[in-house]
Amino acid sequence: MYPALIFGDAHWSPADIALLADRISHSLHAMGVQEGGTVAAMLKNSPSYVATIIACRRAGVYLVPINWHFKAGEVAFLLQDSAAQVLVVHEDLLDVIHAGIPAQVQQLVVPLHEAPGAPTAAWPGLEGAALADSQRIPFNAVVYTSGTTGKPKGVRRLPVAPELRAQADAEAVLVPKAVYGTTAESVAMLSAPMYHSATLSFVSHACAVGATLVLEPQFKAEQALQLIEQHRVTHAYLVPTMYQRLLALPAEVRARHDLGSLLQVSSTGSPCARDLKQRMIAWFGPIITEAYGSSEAGYTTFITSAEWLAKPGSAGKALGSARLSIVGDDGQELPRGEIGLIYVRQPAMPDFTYIGREDDRQKIGRDGLVTLGDMGFMDEDGYLFICDRKSDMVISGGVNIYPAEVEACIMTMPEVSDVAVFGIPDAEFGEAMAAAVQLKPGATLAPATLQARLREQIANYKIPQTITFHDSLPREDTGKIFKRLLRAPYWADADRRI
């Protein structure tokens, strides 16, 4: 099935999307891509991105979504590590990243503005064969995540045996159906960038069920309300940062829009402060849902508004046949109510490996479950509560940021002796980046200079906005920097720990 698509003033029929997906499929085949191959996409929200997802999914081609804010060095690593054969890229992004594209990676350059049914004569292979439909790979996104090493890890799903494909396909539909709620009759709205695993999943499910997708290039609070009213949107994907911006609108602006068509608002990207969620439920009604998951494990818990109001702060109960376990420092499962490391498994998702880093994959596994470093507990009714992140990851505006990557860049600066990067509370984005820097004796370095150097190496959203300088940084007995001591003063008055 193909979705109908509303993008700006343009209305794309399912036939229009099918044609565009077919063109991309022909082009990729002409460039040598086959089932099990790898294609990277550095695209802004657009019909071309939707069509690329469809083409790759049908053909069992691994799709590597790349954040279009990335710089050349960041893109170069992802393309090399994933062994991408082709980079599908919007034409206006090429100048920034061109130096980072390896010689062996072919480029399929997509026009930024494309009209329904318009010819794309410059694309290769339009008269040749298209990619054949896959029989083995039901889920094809390779999402890059990271950890303490600072180098991203590619999460790659393992192929499914042909005899298990039908069962895998059936199970793979059940989880997004619960999390997003979309059907063929739904009008689903997305304005968050599609390079995240959650938004990619949202779009992919809307495509699979043949929904109407209202896609926006970026989120604008009042415009989102206008679109909901104008197109009678039934399902939307929003994250806490968007909640903040919506609630910041004047009361008279919020009141002027009819939101009665909404049936479900899904949020999965980052933790939501209790007060913020309560205010959204009070405004939108009991239609706000939340799911806890990860690129590795998929969605493992789910909670409705009614459940959340009864269990404020909970991330929900096990979703479908998901398994949850809370494990103590001794490796033993803890009883209900005790805080430990959260281990999960979602059987609806095929197993995975980290590209070229099987040791890292093994380290996070236990009895068939995996942990991503989150700490929490389950109450007597089986509801999960997340208390802290054992890992250093920061979630800012729903985007995962890994301090080790930023620290590695800062440590290349000749003035710097040591550094710790960590998350601090932010009213709009949930968390913001902060850096505690120890300079070498006699060295000087202005915060603005440090930030300017970082902008040449990494995406702007990763750059710490708060920078402090210290004579020395606190360390544990093992020599590791005690980030908790650095973080604590910032979080002292916050209503949550993450």
UniProtKB/TrEMBL annotation:
Keyword field contains Membrane: no
Gene3D superfamilies (UniProt xref): 3.30.300.30, N-terminal domain of ligase-like
Keywords, in A-Z order: Ligase
Keyword flag Ligase: yes
Domain (AMP-dependent synthetase/ligase) ranges: 3-349
UniProt xrefs under Pfam families: AMP-binding, AMP-binding_C
SUPFAM superfamilies: Acetyl-CoA synthetase-like (SSF56801)
UniProt domain AMP-binding enzyme C-terminal: residue ranges: 405-480
InterPro entries the record matches: AMP-bd_C, AMP-bd_C_sf, AMP-binding_CS, AMP-dep_synth/lig_dom, ANL_N_sf
Family: Belongs to the ATP-dependent AMP-binding enzyme family.
Protein name, entry field: AMP-binding protein
Protein species of origin: Acidovorax bellezanensis
Lineage: Bacteria, Pseudomonadati, Pseudomonadota, Betaproteobacteria, Burkholderiales
